[in-house]
Amino acid sequence: MLFRKPSPTPPLHSLPSTTSFSKTKDPHNNNNKLRYTLFSCLILASWILFLHHHTRIPPSTDTCHGSGPLFYIHTLPSRFNLGLLQRCHKLNVYTNMCPHVANNGLGQPLSTPSWYATHQFIAEMIVHARLQNHPCRTWDPHAALLFYVPFYGGLHASTMFREPNHTLRDSLAVDLVHFLQSQPSWKRNNGKDHFVALGRTAWDFMRAEDGADFGANIFLKLPPVRNMSVLTVERQPWKGANQFGIPYPSYFHPKTLAEMLTWQNSMRQRARPHLFSFVGGTRKGLEKAKVRDDIVRQCGDSKRCVLVRCASGGDSRCHDPMKVLEVMSSSKFCLQAAGDSFTRRSSFDSVVAGCVPVFFSEHTAYTQYAWYLPAERGSYSVLIEEREVVEGKRSIEEILMSVSEEEVERMREVVIGLIPTLTYAHPNATNLGFPDVVDVALQQLSRRVKEEQLISIS
Ligand SMILES: *[C@@H]1O[C@H](CO)[C@@H](O)[C@H](O)[C@H]1NC(C)=O
Ligand SMILES: *[C@@H]1O[C@H](CO)[C@@H](O)[C@H](O)[C@H]1NC(C)=O
Ligand SMILES: *[C@@H]1O[C@H](CO)[C@@H](O)[C@H](O)[C@H]1NC(C)=O
């Protein structure tokens, strides 16, 4: 049975018995009899109306399906989440995050309804807001299969990138672990049924004790956290056995299936005059991102490529979500080169735009988002070996030209079919009608916990 928020509806047995009203006080007075019968009908009708309004019989899409995963949200002291937002201008050493944390993390609305200028590292807030309104939420920890820890770890990590004192940099993470370990629900399974969602990459929480300090803390290295499932926009491909990739948020946050279908159809019908495009910048002196130099050069040299350079003083379209979408949705292929880390938000923008992503590393998507992407890589994407590009063996244009038109259309259809599950629906959607990022994560987490046979709840 589902545990729901206490509803204002009185239980049925406490309702006044309607039959008591049909008893006539004076059996000899027919007028009275009629009056009382009418009165009783009225009372009955108003109770039916009352029940109709107050016993929300949710539409089928607003229920937690079947044996659906039931999760409980830990009540954390606000220093672990919403409290951090009070200093939103200091959350990130590079950007004022205040406009980005607005609207439950969706950011500022764009001119088209359901579209927002969503920040790339804000998934943790959107996940939180969506789970708070989710039909599979339970208020009873004993009925829960999963426990969600609403920690805004990414927002906190970025406030501490420049903190030289490691004890201080790590202190909130250590504090959280102490808090969790004191909870009865943690003790039940040593945290194995707990999960946290992080809007930044795993690297930001896995400081290496030897080697260069890039500002990371040690959250994901704490032994209790290694018992939890960690959802992150980029997992550490080799050590992240308990880390699961979740998509970066894009800009589309629909509330209904109808909005989603309309968008998918418009992407199917788009004319795509450009063979490929690249939206991004180069990274000076970053070995990992060397391929970007070649991509920018090759794209710039090709008549079939649209280049939107993102650099200070670069193309202004780069920072305008709708302009980026415009470029991508008029291209057949969208190049997704690793940058500061393996993954990019842009891969998900490209899917939303119905543009087939071209990867240069298997860690940009294939080893990251196994819950979300088809196992058959070639069905929705192209992988070009980085060294082929860097060593100038083959041109990107040549490779993409060799894909037949039918093949491109087939891939595009798969990409467009992926849009719903790669979308963060509007957190206040009550009748969504399709599984989004958060629904897929809940299904997979619950499968994982059940497989480990952690819990047997009736
Ligand atoms: C969702 O609803 C709540 C309560 O009405 C409101 O405060 C919040 O701003 C809404 N979220 C968004 C993103 O519109
Ligand atoms: C680092 O911060 C901790 C906690 O505030 C403090 O106890 C310690 O003395 C600091 N270490 C240094 C080297 O400043
Ligand atoms: C992690 O889980 C294992 C197995 O349930 C348990 O033995 C271990 O003590 C847990 N570690 C922590 C730090 O809670």
UniProtKB/TrEMBL annotation:
GO terms for molecular function: glucuronoarabinoxylan endo-1,4-beta-xylanase activity; glycosyltransferase activity. Keywords: Glycosyltransferase, Golgi apparatus, Signal-anchor, Transferase, Transmembrane. Its main location: Golgi. GO terms for cellular component: Golgi membrane. Residues 1-27 are annotated as: Disordered. Residues 72-396 form the Exostosin GT47 domain. It comes from Cajanus cajan. This is Xyloglucan galactosyltransferase KATAMARI1 isogeny. InterPro entries: Exostosin (IPR004263), Exostosin_GT47 (IPR040911). It comes from the Eukaryota. Belongs to the glycosyltransferase 47 family. It is a single-pass type II membrane protein. It is found in: Golgi apparatus membrane. The keyword Transferase applies. GO terms for biological process: xylan biosynthetic process.
